[in-house]
Amino acid sequence: MPIDRDADQQQPAARSPGGDELERALRQLRFGIRSRLSARSLDTADLPELFATLRRRFGTLGMTAGSVEIDDFGMDDRTLARATPILDFLGDHVFRIETLHADALPETALFVANRAADWPHGGLLLAHWLARSSPGRPRPRFLCDGEFAARPFVAPQLTRLGGVRAHPENALRLLRSGRSVIAFPGVAGASPGGPSGLGSFGRGGLLRTAAKASVPIVAVGMVGPESLVPQPGASGWGLPTPWVIAFGEPLHCSPDAAGDELWLARSTESLRRQVGEKVDEARARALRR
Fold this sequence. Notes:
CATH architecture of the largest domain: 3-Layer(aba) Sandwich
CATH topology of the largest domain: Glycerol-3-phosphate (1)-acyltransferase
Number of strands: 7
Strand order of the largest sheet: 1-7-6-2-5-3-4
Order of helices and strands: HHHHEEHEHEHEHEEH
């Protein structure tokens, strides 16, 4: 089939800034390919270069030109700005988040919450609520672990929205930079009328991190995030229920305590009990709503 050289020798005109980026990129690709194929023969030496061009073009689809504010851990301010109206709507109108004892929270702290679900939506919305209630402060970051921290397409989006792979060094760097951190130790499963889903809080790693950073640690009990996640033995998906988030009294950690194994063990167990108490308080409030 002959190639219409007159139509393809001129590169397509650039679309307006509001045009379809995907269509524009595909037209540019088509122009490049046809320009190469318009010759009577294609040198096999050009094939690697052509493949590299295709890979580069497809790899940049959807990206925008210009500088993007991304911090050391990959959080993208532009992505957050686009997501903010959605997060506001979810928190205010879908989940109707209610908080207890949130009037005197520290500026920077390690928030330790029950793992109501393995999915990271609890951390995302809790970080968003904390950021909105304290404008001007660095945005809190939520730790992600398990399968969601390694999924090819989910993990990059979580990173852009403020998620950080769960690791003591990551938490310590964030706390020392003045950013609050939200951690979810234990196991998943907190639900109204069910087990607290706390499990073990480890061997004092959370308290040691807070002590090294000289920041208080705050117990958090969350009820509601589990409603969206299919439970064992249940069929289908649950309907969103109102969320209740209860905060505990800040526990101040001295840097000298980071090496006191006895204090770390006792304080970790005390922290676990306090998180359980906050889960029970949040559950009781949720049942009265």
